[in-house]
Write a structure and sequence with these properties.
mainly alpha; three-stranded parallel beta sheet; globular
Length: about 280
């Protein structure tokens, strides 16, 4: 949304922009056709051609810097609920590198979240679109998730995209998108750039999720209009119980793991971990 809101001003500073039409970004036209593990090699070849053509339409001059935004590069959320931490990240990053056709990559942004909050957030977001099992049936797998977490993702992005710098931002709200843009685009003049009026992609309140799952279980068809209606209707409603929550012991263990992994990230070559103040004014 930040790029769409400030597209004219950013392009006037010599930047090309490529971003999708997600979250109300009306000017977004980027389609990267990122592959899934179920795609055949023939399908991947087709998608690479489509993505390369689409991206080329966003480049006015190869000498201009390109700001590319695609928050789904790491992969979908479903594997997280089974304790698999972005298992398709390498495949998708390798695909993007191919689509870029050797174009040098300057800075790559990776937003990291504490594991306990991230798994809950992913489960809640998936719950907006389909019937989900009880969180308690899944939380043991999530609490003991496979792999090395954020450090493994960071090393994968470095290996596949070879950026000059990987910028890591610990998730925080509120944050100033203008300050984040300044950290990502050296020399950017931020005077006059606008902040989005409100955060996008916010999760539903617990009470709304509980009601939504009841309706889905009863056979109601998932629709965006229903999700937004319940967001309004249950904005201030107190839930009878948390919709998704780890045990206190699981939460402590996941937070300790995140803290240790954040320190590991700070030690990696070519990585800059932003302090929250650098993106919050």
């Amino acid at each position: 949304m930040f790029l769409d809101l400030n597209a004219a001003a950013l392009r006037a500073q010599g930047l090309d922009l490529a971003y999708p039409s997600r979250d109300g970004a009306a000017g977004g036209k980027l389609k990267l056709f990122l592959p899934a593990p179920t795609h055949t090699q023939e399908a991947v070849e087709w998608r690479a051609g489509k993505a390369s053509y689409n991206l080329s339409r966003h480049v006015t001059d190869p000498a201009r810097r390109l700001v590319l935004s695609e928050e789904n590069l790491l992969g979908g959320l479903d594997p997280l609920t089974n304790g698999r931490f972005y298992p398709f990240c390498a495949m998708r990053a390798r695909f993007l590198a191919r689509v870029l056709k050797g174009r040098p990559v300057g800075r790559v942004l990776l937003v990291v979240r504490p594991y306990d909050r991230m798994f809950v957030s992913a489960f809640c977001k998936l719950s907006e679109g389909k019937v989900m099992p009880d969180f308690n049936e899944k939380r043991e797998d999530m609490a003991a998730f496979e792999g090395d977490g954020w450090p493994e993702v960071a090393l994968t992005l470095i290996r596949e995209l070879a950026p000059r710098k990987l910028v890591i931002l610990p998730y925080q709200r509120p944050r100033r998108e203008v300050d984040l843009a300044r950290a990502l685009v050296p020399g950017l003049q931020t005077e006059g750039l606008q902040e989005p009026a409100h955060p996008v992609n916010a999760s539903l309140p617990d009470a709304a999720l509980i009601e939504l799952q009841k309706r889905y279980a009863a056979g109601e068809t998932p629709q965006r209009a229903l999700v937004e209606q319940l967001r309004t209707d249950y904005a201030d409603a107190a839930p009878p119980h948390p919709y998704a929550a780890f045990t206190p012991e699981q939460k402590v263990a996941l937070r300790a793991r995140y803290k240790a992994d954040l320190e590991t990230l700070r030690l990696l070559m070519g990585v800059q971990v932003l302090d929250p103040e650098e993106a919050s004014g």
